[in-house]
Write a structure and sequence with these properties.
- With 200 residues, this protein is α/β, with parallel strands linked by helices.
- The protein has a single domain, classed as 3-Layer(aba) Sandwich (Rossmann fold).
- Helix content is 35%, strand content 20%.
- The chain is built from six helices and seven strands.
- It has helices spanning 35-47, 82-93, 126-135, 156-160, 166-187, 191-198; strands at 16-20, 53-55, 58-65, 68-75, 100-106, 114-117, 142-146.
- It has a seven-stranded mixed sheet, sandwiched between helices.
- Strand 2 and strand 3 form a beta hairpin.
């Protein structure tokens, strides 16, 4: 279990760690399980940040959002071991769970919908489950990205690894815009306002 740091114990120069969950490699691009990766990419583009540095068992980049120093991270460990990458970055930058924002897919929400929580259980998501297990905390804010309910007759693994349709990709453009606005609210201490605006 990792050491948990106070908000003021931050010699690493980062105020927030923002993590998008997904699976690495072209095989998984634009699949439902990679919605977190897609949102971090959109966020990085919006602030002029490149998520290309290799460290923390993933790819990361550093930038600023509303005056906050942020680290954007895409774990390369594959989904079920996401916590290895996340806790490595948390330890390096001395960022407590309350300042680690996780973006990830949710099959209980339709494409185009989002849901923000300030903390909570893993909700059956293996990536989040691993982060909670390895960090020893569930007190990190998270933003769930709707990827659609599993159709009848589909295997769950096949569904989350299926690609978004063209129409769904258009909906995700609007989602990405909302994510960027929500992240700015969250990192400036207005999580409740973000929840009121973007929970659907």
């Amino acid at each position: 279990m990792m050491k948990l740091f106070s908000k003021n114990d931050n010699p690493g120069g980062a105020d927030w760690l923002i993590v998008g969950l997904g699976n690495p490699g072209t095989k998984y691009e634009n699949t439902r399980h990679n919605a977190g990766f897609m949102m971090v990419d959109a966020l990085a583009e919006s602030i002029g940040c490149e998520v290309r540095r290799i460290k923390f068992k993933g790819l990361y980049g550093k930038g600023k959002i509303a005056g906050q120093n942020v680290v954007l991270l895409k774990p390369s460990t594959f989904m079920n071991l996401s916590g290895q990458s996340v806790t490595d970055a948390m330890n390096f930058f001395h960022i407590p769970p309350e300042r680690v924002l996780i973006l990830f897919d949710d099959i209980s929400l339709d494409v185009g919908r989002t849901r923000i929580r300030s903390k909570g259980s893993d909700g059956g998501h293996n990536g989040v489950k691993n982060i909670i297990y390895l960090s020893g905390s569930d007190k990190f804010p998270r933003m769930k990205i709707g990827v659609g309910h599993k159709p009848e007759g589909w295997d769950l693994a096949d569904w989350v690894l299926s690609r978004f349709t063209k129409d769904e990709m258009k909906l995700l453009e609007g989602v990405a815009k909302n994510v960027c606005e929500a992240v700015e609210l969250i990192v400036t201490g207005h999580t409740d306002r973000a929840m009121n605006r973007f929970n659907s």
